[in-house]
């Protein structure tokens, strides 16, 4: 049962808004008449600020309302909100708002305006995901495929006609069936030969990396995933990603261990066990945190342990956001690792992410 919001902005020459009191009153009245053409009454409240700006509120008996804000510096905004029954159509339509936009442009002599699509608030199926750079993306989700709370997180799989089934953990986007580019990037983009190699996957509950590796005849793949419910959901609802690799959690050349990776890595370190490749596909993005005590101890610990179980000729892959100086901060961390490492950064467009994603190949310096 959503409320629809529509936002209109008009860039105006400040001189248009700085006329005499009579001229300003005429301009406000003309704008009010345009708002009323949407079937709204008012203003039921109007305020004039010390800088000469104004604010007015309109409404109708159906519960729709609009706010008109005039900034004397040269900006006029109109925000319209209306209630729309789930599956219904808005009474104030896109067409009527296009007409209002043109009328405002004439009244204000505005040469530049912006009308955003309806923002849908309170929908049963929330279409919005926020990217790591705080940008809002509206998806075409048409149904909830699966949703449950595990002991560790909320697990949600939504269907998108464009991207297929998409996995979210605690409402953070993980992977969609369209995102093979992610799996390829996390395994070296075709540059590596996994035949007869020992591989360790940290996380990877969607099964994409495990399935991809098993097609290349590795010696053995060990996967450490803490959440059995993610595996179960992927097995049933993310077949386009994991295919049949979770139908059994063990095979001749692979084993899925459902447990926390840190104690296992510590045990591997004590036992002297090493791998040709370590792939960090944990849900908590390991390179996206500020280097603070609270947020970075665990990712740093996992990185240190992973390098300890990596063979001298081995490679380690990880990933994270490519925004807000995150890669630069992570690379600064890498420069201070002992023993020293070299690395390769690749920036890849993942279809359902709507933002570029950074992938790192890390190896011990010779």
Automatic annotation (TrEMBL):
Assigned keywords, A-Z: Polyamine biosynthesis, Transferase
Gene3D superfamilies: Siroheme synthase, domain 2, Spermidine synthase, tetramerisation domain, Vaccinia Virus protein VP39
Catalytic residues identified in the record: 281
GO MF entries: spermine synthase activity
Domain PABS: 126-364
Family annotation (Pfam families): Spermine_synt_N, Spermine_synth, SpmSyn_N
PROSITE patterns: PABS_2
GO terms (BP aspect): spermine biosynthetic process
TM helices/strands, residue ranges: none
PANTHER family given in the database record: SPERMINE SYNTHASE
Similarity field: Belongs to the spermidine/spermine synthase family.
Stated name of the protein: SRM protein
